[in-house]
């Protein structure tokens, strides 16, 4: 049997710092402007790295994890802007499908179709998805995520009763920060729950290398004119701490 080696890719540097703090037998490898942290958490071999932002950066980082470090599966966490109006800041979205909203090779291909793969959406394997849904469900039902926050933090960021939602995530090289952009996206992709800048690119690389993966995002903003105001504080005070807790829980599930 191949020994598990989990790649942990985070889109928030603060979250990476938290996860690296959990590593035993830590070693650092610096390559291509990235620092890869190799070690174990709960006796599971892991490689932790900051994805950097955008599709090219994150695809490059995950390729390196697969080819150079031989990871056998990948967890990807980060933040995202809400597109679906039922989502609130602090909610957690697990991708059951991922699409590149800025991929458009018409008229030679369908809109959003990934060249040579003939697919528009990529779907993480069911087993990974089920484990993620179970893990986040447990973290929400025993309130371990909200307990990480002080009452003033919960109030300031309105994170009172976060929920988990499973569905489509859209990725592209664009930060959504206006009602207009959000409306335009919903008009072309009405099923999208949230938008971010890496997930679908990472999913494509994992699909091509046959590496099971899961993409989990905490909603940091509403992808509208308030996005930038809320974003930085939320990431450093809330989302990065949620991210560490989520990764720890996933690692426990995976070890079962
Ligand atoms: N933290 C940086 C900016 C990060 S870039 C800074 O402070 O300057 C944005 C990151 O947040 C990416 O990982 C992207 O995937 C995610 N993200 C969160 N909200 C988003 C939104 N509204 N639109 C696009 N990406 C978003």
How would you concisely characterize the structure shown here?
The chain is of the alpha/beta class. It is 36% helix and 27% strand.
Layout of helices and strands, plus pairs?
Blueprint: E1 5-10, H1 13-20, E2 24-31, E3 34-41, E4 44-50, H2 55-67, E5 73-82, E6 92-100, E7 121-122, H3 126-141, H4 151-156, E8 164-171, H5 179-188, E9 194-196, H6 199-209, E10 213-221, H7 227-255
Parallel strand pairs: 1-4, 1-5, 5-10, 6-8, 8-9
Antiparallel strand pairs: 2-3, 3-4, 5-9, 6-7, 6-10
Helix pairs in contact: 1-7, 2-6, 3-7
The site of S-adenosyl-L-homocysteine has 18 residues, from strand 5, strand 9, strand 10 and helix 7.
- Indicate the low-confidence ranges by residue numbers: none
Spatial order of the strands forming the largest sheet: 5-9-8-6-10
How helix-rich are the residues, as a percent range?
A: 25-40%
Largest sheet report:
5 strands, mixed, barrel
Number of helical regions: 7
Count of domains: 1
Here the CATH topology equals Rossmann fold
Described by its quaternary structure, the protein is: single chain
Mean pLDDT rating: 95
Report how far the terminal alpha carbons are from each other. Answer: 16 Å
- SS class: alpha/beta
What small molecules does this complex bind?
Answer: S-adenosyl-L-homocysteine
The number of E-state strands comes to 10
Q: What is the H/E order?
A: EHEEEHEEEHHEHEHEH
Radius of gyration: 17 Å
The CATH class assignment is: Alpha Beta
């Amino acid at each position: 049997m191949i020994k598990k080696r989990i790649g942990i890719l985070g889109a928030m540097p603060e979250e990476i710092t938290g996860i690296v703090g959990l590593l035993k037998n830590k070693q650092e490898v610096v390559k291509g402007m990235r620092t890869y942290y190799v070690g174990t958490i709960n006796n599971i071999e892991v490689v932790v790295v900051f994805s950097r932002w955008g599709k090219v950066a994150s695809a490059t980082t995950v390729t390196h994890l697969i080819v150079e470090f031989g990871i056998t599966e990948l967890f990807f966490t980060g933040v995202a802007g809400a597109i679906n109006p039922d989502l609130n800041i602090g909610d957690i979205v697990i991708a059951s499908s991922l699409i590149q909203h800025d991929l458009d090779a018409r008229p030679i291909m369908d809109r959003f179709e990934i060249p040579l793969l003939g697919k528009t959406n990529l779907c993480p394997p069911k087993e990974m998805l089920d484990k993620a849904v179970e893990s986040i469900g447990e973290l929400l039902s025993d309130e371990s995520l909200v307990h990480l926050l002080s009452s003033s933090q919960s109030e300031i960021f309105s994170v009172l009763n976060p929920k988990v939602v499973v569905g489509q995530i859209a990725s592209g090289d664009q930060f959504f920060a206006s009602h207009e952009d959000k409306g335009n996206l919903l008009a072309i992709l009405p099923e999208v729950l949230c938008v971010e800048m890496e997930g679908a690119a990472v999913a494509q690389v994992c699909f091509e290398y046959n590496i099971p993966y899961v993409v989990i995002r905490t909603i940091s903003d509403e992808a509208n004119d308030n996005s930038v105001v809320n974003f930085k504080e939320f990431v450093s005070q809330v989302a990065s701490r949620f991210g560490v807790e989520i990764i720890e829980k996933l690692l426990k599930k995976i070890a079962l």
